[in-house]
Amino acid sequence: MTTPCPLRHIEARHPALRGAKSPMQTIGLKTPSSDSAQRARQGPGRDLLPLLAGAATVVGGLGAILALAGVDSPLRGPFTLFFLLAAPSAAIATALRGLEPFGRVLASVAGAVAVNMLVAQGMLAMHQWSVGGGIVAVTAISSLILLLVLVRRLRGRTVRGQGA
Question: Which end of the chain lies in a sparser environment, N or C, as judged by fewer CB atoms within 10 Å?
Fold first, then answer.
């Protein structure tokens, strides 16, 4: 019987020889501890995000209505501008849900600016520019993006449901 080869220097110091797990055995999903999750749910601002989303929806909708109705109000300009940025941004952000939050916000705002510029350029090229037409076109494009995202998600659920 032959004696086993002595371990090389690097093998002798390997953590697995002392009972440690290999790196592949330690990969897993990290879940937050229940204490930190409970504290996050009990904070005073826990319902702030839905409240801000609702307020943004009201402000954007009011801006679109004021612009389409032609109401002379000092709030018409800022609210309409908010709508023109928020509607396409929200639609694009919904489509980009796999990105990290900062990248998602940056890409969706850049996409909203691009949508607004393309609508304005297209309407000017056709000599059909109007504020109401621009609002309607941006609303239609944003709704189409949201609809495509919804259809894609529903189709994905159906395919996964049938495969299981």
Answer: N
Annotate 88-121 with DSSP letters as a single string.
HHHHHHHHTTTS-HHHHHHHHHHHHHHHHHHHHH
Mention every residue, 6+ apart, whose C-beta is less than 8 A from residue 107. Answer: 92, 93, 96, 99
| Torsion sign, CA atoms 102, 104, 108, 110 | positive
Q: Is the pTM of this model over 0.90?
A: no
Choice between 57 and 11, residue whose per-residue pLDDT is larger = 57
Where would I find the H helices in the chain? 9-12, 23-26, 34-42, 48-69, 76-95, 101-125, 131-163
CA distance 67 to 85: 14
CB 142 within 8 A of CB 91: yes
| Contact call for residues 66 and 60 (beta carbons, < 8 A) | no
How high is the pLDDT of residue 2?
67
Q: Which amino acid appears at position 38 of this protein?
A: Q
Tokens of 107: 């890409």
pLDDT of 39 > 60? The answer is no
Phi and psi, residue 120, nearest 5°: -65, -45
